[in-house]
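Translate sequence into structure tokens.
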Amino acid sequence: MRMIEVRNLKTEYAYGEPFVVSEAGFSAGQITAVIGRNGSGKSTLLKTLAGQKNYSGSILISGKECRDYNPMERAKEIAFLPQSVKGLNLDVKTLAEHGRFPYHGNFRKMTGEDREKIEKALLLTGMKEYADRELKELSGGERQRAYLAMVIAQDSPMILMDEPTTYMDHLHRESFFGVLKQLAGEGKGIVMVCHDIEQSFAYSDRIVLMENRRLEFAGTPAELVKKEELMRRNFGVAMRRTDGGEALYPYGLKR
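Result follows.
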């Protein structure tokens, strides 16, 4: 299982404000959910891990410092899907093909391996039947799944995503988390910002909680359940283990 190892990480927030992520260290891999209130630094953390912001301290990716990769090398190690993506005049299949760019640039033709990766990505995201559709013709949720297909086609060991299920309905969110479980089972490390607390607890192996632009917790869902004061301070609710039966998730909100 691929992991990102972080030590003594500091970066800059919006407008150059200092952002001390963690004076200690943490690791992110398997399926790691990053949660916290709006403005807590979730997206900034993800951009920093993706190599898009200057930082001090250490971010080790496959044992190598993040800043020491050139962009093409880093793209082979980390696929990053930001919260908002500029609209492109492409069909779904062509967008997925863009995920193979780190391996051949603009000039090499698609190989059989490339086509296999793209086919798998379209099938996993349920976008195979939309392959010839233009992005502008899709709903918000369908468009988000098309971008996910591009990220999966990139086939990087680490996948970083910022609120990837924002425009999806419940059925597609559940299907999406099933895809993440499959990818994690294949050895990929996944780090995602998630705004749904119950889904974060249900599908993640680890949770990172950001508060006031600092990392306040990194551990398992079972460990975070015990941090009632921390949860209430950030979300106004705590979490409890459900008793099974008809409960949709293994953890539920608690007043």
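Note: The mean pLDDT is 88.
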